[in-house]
Amino acid sequence: MSIDRKKVSLLLPEVSPVISLAHGGEDCLDLLLKAGLPIVITDQVLYEATHGHKDGFPDASAVREWYEKHKAKIKVVKTKIGEARAELMNVGKYDHKKFANQGEASVLQAMNDGKIKPGPYLFLFEEEKMANPSYFGAYPVHLISTYGFLVGLERAKIISSADDILERIRLNGRPNFKADISIEEPEKLINLQKSPTG
Amino acid sequence: MLRAYTLNLDDSLMMAAKTKALHDKTSVSEMVRRLLSEHLGIGDKTAGDAPDERKIVETLKKYSSGQLKRSEAMQEIGLDQVELGAFISLMNEYQIQWPEINREQAKEEGEYVSRAIAFNLGETNEY
What we know:
heterodimer; A: 198 residues; alpha/beta; Rossmann fold; six-stranded mixed β-sheet; 6 strands; 41% helix; globular; B: 127 residues; mainly alpha; 2 domains
């Protein structure tokens, strides 16, 4: 469809794609930037992707280093969930289990709160696609898997082979890397779907 | 049934265990289970609890074939969503094949991505 010339952004609602790319190496993480799509991530998703560096997890450390290097190019949206987590951490009452899977919830919250503005987006998922807004404001939203993202880069001639990257990630300790194969339509957690006229 | 427990361990010991687990492509939980099973002489995993083990394998196979989402499979096994490492260990331990990539779906998604890249570059007005 034809829409206003607002750039399509890449929104990261969960950590799995970033962790998978981290297993492929820094140049694989760089692919997120090479697509030329502005990157949007919430504070909670960023936390979930990087907090493991304190426990010595190399993938979390790689994501953290990559983020520090490129943070000027990545928009981090503050959310109520992220702020609540930070406050609990400050007083030593943070329970990781209670915040499991809150990354995606923080994205939906930020969309509802207007902290993430309507626009054309690609939502990058890997394991499960829990929310499918279809439209955000007047703009279409497409859900893509990590592998689908790589296929798109291959089509755009940014990489020579999506399968080569896939193999690299799997061989580097991410054997479960895959595209989503859910047989059912993703559940709509919230109703963000609007007509193209807004 | 697998359940989550809290253990009090030294930081250095846990760090060493995590490093070893990463190297062996397993999890600390799996290592603890194996060591305790050996130490107590009650066999690996849920010895004497065969129906649960059968259910675990059945659930993992359903996940493998795409009949269950990962979260659903983890819930059926009794794992918390943060225990992804334990779930991965179980898949590897029982040698269950990981779900295959749906390449047709990936092609469709790839089309969205390449179109978005072209759109942002001003090469097309369609997204």
